[in-house]
Amino acid sequence: MLIETTSEWNLMRRRGALLREMHELVAGNLMRGTLVTLARRCGKARCACTTQGRKHKSRCVSVNLSGRTRLAYVRAEKEAQVRKALGHYRRFWKVLDELTEVNLRLLKLGHGPSIKGPSEGEQGSGVKPARRGAKPAQQSRATQ
To answer: Which structural domain, as residue segments, surrounds residue 50?
Structure first.
């Protein structure tokens, strides 16, 4: 099907750019959650947190999994990596929302969202497309 208007062409190009960005984000590391600072008292009688009210601060990631909030301590040297993974997750969802919007607009114009996956022999999927004229694979006796 020929693309009839410039806006359709721009939507197709935008979809391609969004798919590439999603691919790059997924190739990195994603993490859902929130980086929080906890302030606690240790309970030692001579500690400044008890005598002066200055609490001990620590950084944690908070995330809800299966209906339960989980906390994980984040060491100072890992904080930048955690922030980056959290940012990639947030960006991934923004890109997904925009991709959905573009696909809906294309659907209204008569174009469906083109879907490529392992069954179509996408590069890196481990599944190769069948050759023209190749005989179908025979089933083993165990599966018949």
So the answer is: 6-113
